[in-house]
Design goal:
The chain has 252 residues and is of the alpha/beta class. 33% of the residues lie in helices and 26% in strands. It contains seven helices and twelve strands. The chain has a seven-stranded parallel sheet, with helices on both faces. A five-stranded mixed sheet has the order 8-9-7-10-11, with helices on one face. Helix 1 packs across helix 6 and helix 4 packs parallel to helix 5. It is elongated and about 60 Å long.
Length: 252
């Protein structure tokens, strides 16, 4: 039985994860961490992870980038793996995660959906084949409550594509203030925020008289919740290192 500490337990994703775990027999949530310390789901909720006293095997974090320091300190101090699902980390925080992964097992992904990770793999393949003869544009759409833009997933897609291109790609975020023709080395990244859109990502490869489009639409937050719980179970007992969805898929 995998025992989980859930950070961000009283948020929308926390609620989705709690529901997923209730339906499984191989794991349980033993404690939660949230700025709202109401205990609504049968486990104790703390304002800070440092105050958690329950015995656990792994941390799932779906909270806010500002909590990263305390989560990493706890994970390293307890030698406890952590699944970091929060998006919007700064470059300095990414460096923190990499440094901490030398001491403890960390799983970090900007998107926990299996479908999105397939989209990324397909986009890599398209970039390898189409090379520099097609322009690349990425459009992401999310609900009107999402704070960070572009999404962490859009950046994951762009990074994967840029690794396969025969030139050093430059990311162009919106073009309203740019008065020039599109440069060949650009990857355009565009964010849409509105309504209750769970998450949509579209990758456009635009060539001469033809367009190739790869897209993914999430219909429910449950796809991300399920992925994070699968990652938590997978991470138990793993040695120090930085893991992602590719590692989980490879062992599935």
């Amino acid at each position: 039985m995998t025992k989980i500490i859930l950070c961000g337990c009283n948020g929308k994703m926390g609620a989705a994860i709690t529901e997923i775990v209730r339906e499984r027999s191989d794991c349980e949530i033993v404690a939660g961490v949230d700025v709202n310390t109401s205990s609504m789901n049968g486990y104790q909720v703390y304002a800070n992870i440092a105050d958690v006293s329950e015995t656990a095997d792994v941390i799932i974090d779906f909270s806010h980038p500002s909590t990263l320091d305390s989560i990493l300190d706890y994970a390293v101090g307890k030698s406890m793996p952590a699944v970091l699902c929060t998006t919007g980390y700064s470059e300095a925080q990414i460096a923190q995660i990499k440094a901490a992964s030398e001491k403890v097992a960390l799983f970090q992904s900007g998107n926990m959906s299996l479908g999105i990770n397939l989209l990324i793999a397909l986009s890599r393949k398209a970039a390898q084949i189409l090379g520099d003869s097609f322009d690349v544009e990425i459009v992401e759409k999310h609900h009107n409550q999402k704070i960070d833009a572009p999404s962490g997933t859009a950046l994951m897609i762009a990074n994967a594509i840029s690794e396969e291109l025969p030139y050093d790609a430059r990311y162009e975020y919106d073009r309203h203030s740019v008065r020039r023709k599109r440069e060949k080395n650009e990857i355009g990244i565009h964010a849409v925020r509105g309504g209750t859109i769970v998450g949509e990502h579209e990758v456009i490869f635009a060539g001469h008289n033809e367009v190739v489009t790869i897209s993914h639409s999430a219909q429910s937050k449950g796809v991300f919740a399920a992925g994070s719980v699968n990652a938590a179970v997978y991470m138990c007992g793993k040695p120090a290192g930085l893991y992602d969805m590719n590692d989980l898929i490879a062992e599935s």
